[in-house]
Amino acid sequence: MTLDELRQLVRSIPDFPKPGILFRDITTLIGHGAGFSAAIDHLAAYTKEAGGQAIAGIEARGFIFGAALAARLELPFIPVRKPGKLPVPVLAIDYALEYGTDTLEVDPGAVEDGSRLVLVDDLIATGGTALAAVELLRRAGGNVVLSLFAIDLPALGGADRLRQIGVPAAALLKFED
């Protein structure tokens, strides 16, 4: 499927989660077998080009795309989790949200020192979560060589923020509004 065909599988929901927000819903994309498979094929091409050796996915929807991508390429999958979900000693990072803070954690034993990681999430907006994940994976010894997203909202600047710290960013679909 082409990227234009994949774009048609993303549902737009006005005024969610609050008035004035146009929410881009990927559940219609992942619920379409051929569309989801095609999206993973496109992400796989980016990953191969970057020489990715492992896939790191951000909880929760980054797990959907990241785990499927890792399985397709037969690469390790590294979950970047919300607090308290991993049963081993973790590395953690706090980061700012629009209203407050949040935390991400990773099992440092899951990251091979110097390995070429591809960070995956469903959507990049302001980039706060992705930037925190990059820092966390770097602390664990990984080299994030690419960040991949199903959707980019370029007006919010997240992909540009990743590029500013030396992490290339790519997305299958861009929604300018």
What Rg, in angstroms, do the CA atoms define?
Answer: 15 Å
In round numbers, the mean pLDDT is 96
CATH architecture of one domain: 3-Layer(aba) Sandwich
How much helix, percentage-wise, in residues? 25-40%
SSE succession: HEEHHEHEEEEHEHE
Which word captures the global form? globular
- Note poorly predicted spans: none
Structural class: alpha/beta
User: Number of DSSP strands?
Assistant: 9
How many separate helices? Answer: 6
Strand content: 25-35%
Regarding CATH, which class of one domain?
Answer: Alpha Beta
Largest sheet: 5 strands, parallel
Look up the CATH topology of one domain. Rossmann fold
Span between N and C termini? 24 Å
Give, in spatial order, the strands making up the sheet with the most strands.
4-3-7-8-9
Pfam family, one: Pribosyltran
InterPro entries: Ade_phspho_trans (IPR005764), PRTase-like (IPR029057), PRTase_dom (IPR000836), UPRTase/APRTase (IPR050054)
Main location: cytoplasm
Pathway: Purine metabolism; AMP biosynthesis via salvage pathway; AMP from adenine: step 1/1
Structure notes:
Helices cover about 35% and strands about 30% of the residues. The protein has about 180 residues and is α/β, with parallel strands linked by helices. The protein has a domain at about 50-175: 3-Layer(aba) Sandwich (Rossmann fold). A five-stranded parallel β-sheet has the order 4-3-7-8-9, sandwiched between helices. A two-stranded antiparallel sheet has the order 1-2. Strands 5-6 form a two-stranded antiparallel ribbon. Helix 6 (about 160-165) links the parallel strand 8 (about 145-150) and strand 9 (about 170-175). The mean pLDDT is about 95.
